[in-house]
Write a structure and sequence with these properties.
The structure is a single chain. By secondary structure, the chain is of the alpha+beta class. The chain folds into four domains: 223 residues, 3-Layer(bba) Sandwich (FAD/NAD(P)-binding domain); 141 residues, Elongation Factor Tu (Ef-tu), domain 3 (Beta Barrel), CATH 2.40.30.260; 98 residues, tRNA uridine 5-carboxymethylaminomethyl modification enzyme MnmG/GidA (Arc Repressor Mutant, subunit A, Orthogonal Bundle); 52 residues, DNA polymerase, domain 1, CATH 1.10.150. Helices cover 37% and strands 18% of the residues. The strands form four sheets. Strands 10, 11, 12, 13, 14, 15, 16, 17 and 18 form a nine-stranded antiparallel β-sheet that branches. Strands 1, 2, 6, 7, 8, 9 and 19 form a seven-stranded mixed β-sheet that branches. Helix 1 runs parallel beside helix 10 and helix 2 runs parallel beside helix 10. It is globular, with a radius of gyration of 26 Å. The two termini are 52 Å apart.
């Protein structure tokens, strides 16, 4: 077959989710990748999730994507981060077997009959009248298609740096992708350079873990998928150790040969995941930095040294690392390295991730200036969905900032752009209490089902789950507890006793009271739960959260609803804002360049003032 609905270029996390979502919706998809053995390769750390990233993975799962399911199937450790903080900050994180992760992704894709594969390099996209018609590969093949999703990762003109050595590559062991950037620039796109890096890999048999701090997984491990994926029965520990002043002094001896300090690397690196030499330079008053030692799988002794990303000469890396506690006899599998690559500033994209210049051409993942598997996978999912919907002549699928972290991610990219690798944080989401990791299914499964991606079975499970939640909340708000029923528990948790009856939900508002304890100690609540025999731990935890944070949730929802009025005021595509002379010069320039879809999006553009927004609203006749 040489004519496809959609061609996906690149089989990293973005490409895999793009191919999977488009294929699941019914499009005929061709996935082109340089190496079929490296699908969804965990090129950097062997983990999924983390602060805000875990919320993204759960959102992908709630919509019918596969990152959460495959994470669960290949986990070797699970931890819920930030449990000491409020629920808006709770973020699931998993260590994964990176070999199994790649294998499971390939299995999922090969099980989809609407996805074909071709191992090759795409060197050219074919365009006619500013519209995609196909792609040309390095082997001289031409594949026709209606739409192309570019998910090239760090491969576009990638250069790997280790000290004074530098060579072409998309990652260690894989060649770079040539020609495509140059063609896109000739078509009118703007490209820039970015930099990222990865740490040394070490032989776990040579490490002294007794000299490090063990970090086991959660006693009761959770999971990412809302489906019936198997629970984790055993776990592998991670370990914590620290650099020292001696380590820093050794690393400084290599600064003269560092491509970062010498200026050989022009691209901006990640602010929130800097190399070890960057940390030493920027935080010169700190005499130590954390290093997390993470296993790469069940059946390997390879360990990832999280926190020791570096592009210094390999001999300097090795000499310094052997001065770290527990690394005295360390053997190394490979040095850390930096990689510099092309990306395309995402102000050139629409909300669907389709490019503004070329119809039916979509960008997803690191090509848009993001960093992280989770951010890439989310973009791939949305690009795959929207490429399919546009071919079918259906309305675009766009998530709002108040609906998902994925909505925040894409809105940030296309509205604000990025000059450094973009990483998601909870602080980027103004409605983070609404966008918790536990309620992603409630927020998104119905929306995804409406376009045909999330199955009817998934939607039915979500409805059943929240009917049970409502039932238990209603009971707790109506059930009054006498002092004799509640005071034993209150004394046990050091809370003041009650002298007259109170609603169970009111007692649950007390900081030290938890619903699990109430179920155990209060007979009427225990009887209600046992009668229905369907309130699992997730439901009980959700009910407690919804009762304790009810007022905060209502206030945040009110703010979101008010902002939604601006999101519903749409602007004309291609409108010439220079005609509105009441706008500031900066506003006219940026509105013409970005072409926001709504008043809400326009309000988030740097340099567009509230006065400018008022002018736009008046122009719309509102």
């Amino acid at each position: 077959m040489n004519k496809y609905d959609i061609i996906v270029v690149g089989a990293g996390h973005a490409g895999c989710e793009a191919a999977s979502s488009a294929g699941s919706l019914g499009s005929k998809v061709l996935l082109i990748t340089m190496n079929m053995m490296n699908m969804a390769q965990m090129s950097c750390n062997p983990s999924m999730g983390g602060i805000a990233k875990g919320q993204i993975v759960r959102e992908i799962d709630a919509m019918g994507g596969y990152s959460g399911i495959i994470t669960d199937l290949t986990m070797i450790q699970f931890r819920m981060l930030n449990k000491s903080k409020g629920p808006a900050m709770w973020s699931p994180r998993a260590q994964n077997d990176r070999f199994l992760y790649s294998m499971e992704w390939r299995k999922v894709l090969e099980n989809n009959r609407d996805i074909d594969f071709w191992q090759d390099t795409v060197i050219e996209i074919n365009v006619k009248s500013d519209k995609i018609i196909g792609v040309k590969t390095g082997l001289g093949m031409f594949f026709k298609c209606n739409s192309v999703i570019l998910a090239n990762g760090t491969f576009l003109n990638g250069i790997i740096h280790i000290g004074e050595k530098h060579f072409s590559g998309g990652r260690m062991g894989d060649r770079a992708a040539k020609n495509l950037t140059e063609q896109l620039v000739n078509l009118g796109f703007n490209s820039c350079r970015m930099k990222t890096g990865t740490p040394v890999r070490v032989d776990g048999r040579s490490l002294n873990f007794r000299r490090m701090v063990e970090q086991p997984g959660d006693e009761i491990p959770g999971k990412f998928s809302f489906t019936e994926t198997p629970g984790l029965k055993r776990q592998r520990s991670c370990y914590l150790t620290y650099t020292s002043q001696e380590v820093h002094d050794i690393l400084r001896t290599g600064f003269g040969k560092s491509p970062m300090f010498s200026g050989r690397i022009q691209g901006r690196g990640p602010r929130y995941c800097p190399s070890i030499e960057d940390k030493i330079d920027r935080f010169s008053t700190k005499d130590r930095h954390q290093l997390f030692i993470e296993p790469e799988g069940w059946n390997t002794e390879e360990y990832y040294v999280n926190g020791f990303s570096s592009s210094l000469p390999e001999d300097v890396q090795f000499k310094a690392l052997r001065k770290v506690r527990g690394f005295e006899k360390a053997k190394f599998f490979r040095p850390g390295y930096a990689i510099e690559y092309d990306y395309f500033p995402p102000l050139q994209l629409k909300s669907t991730l389709e490019t503004k210049l070329i119809q039916n051409l979509y960008f997803a993942g690191q090509i848009n200036g993001t960093t992280g598997y989770e951010e890439a996978a989310a973009q791939g999912l949305m690009a795959g969905i929207n490429a399919h919907l546009k071919i079918q002549g259906q309305e675009a699928f766009i998530l709002k900032r108040s609906e998902a972290y994925i909505g925040v991610l894409i809105d940030d990219l296309i509205t604000k752009g990025t000059e450094e690798p973009y990483r998601m944080f909870t602080s980027r989401a103004e409605y983070r209490l609404l966008l918790r990791q536990d309620n992603a299914d409630q927020r998104l499964t119905r929306l995804s089902n409406s376009i045909g991606l999330a199955s009817a079975e998934r939607l039915s499970k979500v409805k059943d789950k929240y009917l049970k939640i409502d039932k238990l909340i209603t009971f707790l708000k109506s059930e009054s507890l006498m002092p004799v029923q509640a005071n034993d528990l209150l004394l046990e948790v050091n809370e003041n006793v009650i002298s007259q009856k109170q609603k169970a939900a009111v007692i649950l508002l007390r900081p030290q009271v938890c619903l699990k304890d109430m179920i155990k100690s209060v007979e009427t609540i225990n009887s209600f739960v046992e009668e229905y025999d369907s309130f699992d731990e997730d439901i009980i935890a959700e009910v407690e959260l919804l009762i304790k944070y009810e007022n905060y949730l209502e206030k945040e929802q009110e703010v979101a609803d008010k902002m939604l009025n601006l999101e519903n005021l749409t602007l004309l595509e291609g409108f010439n804002y220079s005609k509105l002379t009441s706008l500031s010069n900066e506003a006219r320039e940026k509105l013409n360049r970005i072409q926001p879809r709504t008043i809400g999006q326009a309000s988030r553009i740097s340099g567009v003032s509230p006065a400018d927004i008022s002018v736009l609203i008046v122009y719309l006749g509102r």
